[in-house]
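Renewal narrative, Specific Aim 1. Our central claim is that a sequence can be written position by position from structural information alone. The example that follows is taken directly from our test logs and has not been curated for this report. It begins with the structure tokens describing the chain, in the order in which they were read.
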């Protein structure tokens, strides 16, 4: 199954890690020699394999090997940045020279600069993020074919396939700055996905499923991924529209994660200092009903968004942004924090491993709580206004009566305002069954407008 012994892979990664650390040192040293008052640099190296098959035939086999560096220099409050994919000593010197030249032509910004030294991560904990998968091309193809075959065998109404793919990625990244911080770590990510088409003679429906994990042993079985993709496609057959109405709406857990991402964007310091957030005046006030909490857990072992420090080198930490329904803090990197007169929360690059506590109800119980209304399982379009909170998305799913699914629904639009949707959150389920860095169950919203016939 593997091409190289794990110990050999680990030794190779350690050697590359040392080389990248040396390159960061060279970048920072060259910036000092050019007269920069401060500098920060990031150097990365990654390798990967992707195979794609369709209808049992290999369509793509792609090996990737990428590396690059970026340097940012500060002359007082003037800033310049440059990047290159060439890691040779000459290219390093050229990149620093370009960044310095750019800095001389930029205007001063009092918030340009490094995050305070005391906020830097003083240690890089092992978050169990590195699990290389030295799978051979033949075995990768075999798993992708197994995934697609399982999908096509699930139901005779699966008549076509958009294919299955397997990817494996291993990367190293080192960040350092002239405050004396330098840190980095290896990480991996592997995934398996499948998309198929169902046809009952009256119409066709497409759907997909996937699994993603830091370690290959944490992936769903290939056949299970294929069957899930097929089941999701078949159950959508026979969809119809419904009359326009105002009803409760239950968001499938995977889609509820999107509502959390909208919330994360709204509390991002970048949107707050630019005054482009619908939650601009809500700090310290309720935005969710009492009892609901939103946390980030950046040190979650094997978490898909785990990181010991943010892109400013600031230590990450477990923290709540919404506590008992109240918005307690903005999500801040150093620059946004400076613009707002606050301190970084270690969120340059965003929230990591968002989660809300799961409720006590499984999917069937959530449907009973819904009663009569719409169970949404797919969304289309980008109809979300981050400034006003206005929300309007194309949707499909199922019409529910007395807690029981009646028939598939399609060609509808659901609309409301995110402020109202968050305030009118009735319950969160315990039915978190999707891969990703966000942990939540399904969300039941008290009322939304459903536009149909």
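The sequence written for that structure reads:
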């Amino acid at each position: 199954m593997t091409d190289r012994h794990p110990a050999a892979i680990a030794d190779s990664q350690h050697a590359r890690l040392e080389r990248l650390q040396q390159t960061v040192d060279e970048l920072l040293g060259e910036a000092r020699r050019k007269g920069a008052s401060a500098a920060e640099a990031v150097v990365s190296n990654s390798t990967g394999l992707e195979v794609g098959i369709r209808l049992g035939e290999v369509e793509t086999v792609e090996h990737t090997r990428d590396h690059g560096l970026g340097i940012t220099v500060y002359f007082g409050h003037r800033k310049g940045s440059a990047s290159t994919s060439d890691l040779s000593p000459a290219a390093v010197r050229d990149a620093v020279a370009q960044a310095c030249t750019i800095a001389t032509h930029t205007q001063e910004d009092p918030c340009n600069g490094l995050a305070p030294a005391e906020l830097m991560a003083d240690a890089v904990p092992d978050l169990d993020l590195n699990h290389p998968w030295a799978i051979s091309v033949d075995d990768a193809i075999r798993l992708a074919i197994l995934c697609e075959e399982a999908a096509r065998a699930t139901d005779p109404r699966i008549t076509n396939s958009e294919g299955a793919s397997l990817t494996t990625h291993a990367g190293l990244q080192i960040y350092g700055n002239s405050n004396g911080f330098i840190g980095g770590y290896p990480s991996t990510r592997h995934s398996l996905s499948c998309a198929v088409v169902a046809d009952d003679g009256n119409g066709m429906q497409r759907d997909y499923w996937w699994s993603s994990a830091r370690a290959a042993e944490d992936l769903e079985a290939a056949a299970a991924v294929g069957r899930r993709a097929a089941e999701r496609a078949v159950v959508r057959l026979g969809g119809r529209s419904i009359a326009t109405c105002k009803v409760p709406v239950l968001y499938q857990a995977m889609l509820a994660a999107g509502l959390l991402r909208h919330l994360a964007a709204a509390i991002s310091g970048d949107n707050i200092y630019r005054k482009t957030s619908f939650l601009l005046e809500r700090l310290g006030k309720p935005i969710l009903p009492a009892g609901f909490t939103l946390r980030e857990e950046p040190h979650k072992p094997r978490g898909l968004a785990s990181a010991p420090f943010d892109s400013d080198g600031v230590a990450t930490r477990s923290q709540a942004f919404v506590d008992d329904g109240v918005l307690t803090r903005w999500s801040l990197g150093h620059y946004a924090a400076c613009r707002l007169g606050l301190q970084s929360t270690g969120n340059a690059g965003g929230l990591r491993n968002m989660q809300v506590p799961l409720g006590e109800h499984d999917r069937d119980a959530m449907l009973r709580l819904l009663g009569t209304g719409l169970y949404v399982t797919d969304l289309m379009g980008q109809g979300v206004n981050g400034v006003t909170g206005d929300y309007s998305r194309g949707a499909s799913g199922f019409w529910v009566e007395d807690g029981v699914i009646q028939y598939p629904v399609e060609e509808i639009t659901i609309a409301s305002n995110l402020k109202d949707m968050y305030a009118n959150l009735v319950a969160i389920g315990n039915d978190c069954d999707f891969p990703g860095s966000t942990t939540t169950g399904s969300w039941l919203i008290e009322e939304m407008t459903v536009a149909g016939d």
